[in-house]
Amino acid sequence: MSGSGGADGAGVRRTDLRRVTVVGSGLIGTSIALALRARGVDVTLTDPDPASLRLACDLGAGRPLDGAAESSPADIAVIAAPPAVIPAVLRDAQDRKLAQVYTDAASVKASVVAGAERLGCDMATFVAGHPMGGREKHGPGAARADLFLGRSWALCPTDEADAGSVAAVTELARLCGADPLVLEARAHDRAVALVSHAPHVASSAVAARLLAGDGAALTLAGQGVRDVTRIAGGDPAMWTEILTHNAGPVAEVLRETAADLAATAEALRTWSARTPADPPGRAPAGTETPSRDGAGGGDDDGLEPVRDLLARGRSGHGRIPGKHGAVRRPVYTVIPVVIPDEPGALGRLFAAAATAGVNIEDVRIEHSPGLPLGVAELYVLPEAVDTLAAALSADGWSVHPGA
Ligand SMILES: NC(=O)C1=CN([C@@H]2O[C@H](COP(=O)(O)OP(=O)(O)OC[C@H]3O[C@@H](n4cnc5c(N)ncnc54)[C@H](O)[C@@H]3O)[C@@H](O)[C@H]2O)C=CC1
Ligand SMILES: O=C(O)C(=O)Cc1ccc(O)cc1
């Protein structure tokens, strides 16, 4: 094992990782195992739950670990178990000399590293890790070989970690299709509080409100509420563990989020108490709705907290990097195109874009049930907008750049 990796002529990564043991064959462990199997790595699996282990093996993720039968330690052992048990599982694996190098997949890092140090684990061969790909489901049945493609994979080695250990775990992350990123455990935890843990709680808060809705209200649920609440489907026990292991940073983000929500709610409550009708900016000339001080709608209408949050939210959303990574990926421009709701329409649209030489980076389809038309939102590089809009218009498509 050298961990150098590389790409052969067919673009398939070669690797010097020969054998990896996955401890914890749930969603993440089995997904890592499937990705490694696809790269030709020999994977052995273990899990205290025999049903999970059997399902992972039946899915082709590897073979059950039989410690007695292995002639030598694996190159790497990946511990993909719940955060609280990782230090003890690591210590046990190191005592059994399961592998040369060890990593984990837990969503929190400082408590795992501290726990491993407390238990006297060998920190030279342990590189704490966190693949930033996942799902709201759990168990091996939800595993996917492509779960980590294009995702970041945080590595948090302590100062004691051997360079060879870091190189080996870096190679493991790359073999799974991810982009490894080395950072200190506490910095990792602050970052994921912002981009993963607090968003999970916010999603749960929105989803929990739905319990108060009647059947008719829920029938009206569209894609927006589905997008916002998808991750609320995660396992409550696992998420309680994640949140308590990163409690301080998560509480800080939630406090600021709650302040934004409270200011917005207060502005809307005040607005609704004083205005019988007509939202700002929509009233016919001369009939502007009054504000508390008697002025017409505008900057002093008390809605500034609402506008401010919506504007900051839009900017914040624009900062989320896409598939090409934070530095390299520009923000895409969306071109809405009206398409007939009929077989082959999307194929013809994509073919027209290909003829124009423009790559469609992403696409979303908006359907109105019962209508014969839909809108395809094409995500393209800003410099391709004019070319694509002109080519599609010339081809007869109803194109609406800037809409
Ligand atoms: N669910 C997600 O989207 C992501 C989860 N993670 C982290 O990955 C880890 C695993 O999470 P999932 O795969 O989602 O959970 P999961 O529930 O699908 O799998 C966890 C597995 O660990 C096993 N396990 C429990 N105690 C164990 C022990 N003492 N020794 C060995 N295995 C044990 C369970 O039997 C189960 O099969 C967690 O630390 C989580 O924070 C990381 C990235 C994404
Ligand atoms: O479902 C998703 O989109 C996720 O982002 C899941 C996820 C959950 C926990 C993590 O530590 C990392 C990723």
From TrEMBL:
It catalyses: prephenate + NAD(+) = 3-(4-hydroxyphenyl)pyruvate + CO2 + NADH. Keywords: Amino-acid biosynthesis, Aromatic amino acid biosynthesis, NAD, Oxidoreductase, Tyrosine biosynthesis. Residues 270-306 are annotated as: Disordered. Residues 334-403 form the ACT domain. Its EC number is 1.3.1.12. Gene3D superfamilies: 3.30.70.260, 6-phosphogluconate dehydrogenase C-terminal like domain, NAD(P)-binding Rossmann-like Domain. Residues 18-298 form the Prephenate/arogenate dehydrogenase domain. InterPro entries: 6-PGluconate_DH-like_C_sf, ACT_dom, NAD(P)-bd_dom_sf, PDH_C, PDH_N, Preph/Arog_dehydrog, Prephen_DH. Pathway: Amino-acid biosynthesis; L-tyrosine biosynthesis; (4-hydroxyphenyl)pyruvate from prephenate (NAD(+) route): step 1/1. It comes from the Bacteria. The keyword Amino-acid biosynthesis applies. Belongs to the prephenate/arogenate dehydrogenase family. It is an enzyme of class 1 (oxidoreductase). The keyword Oxidoreductase applies. This is Prephenate dehydrogenase.
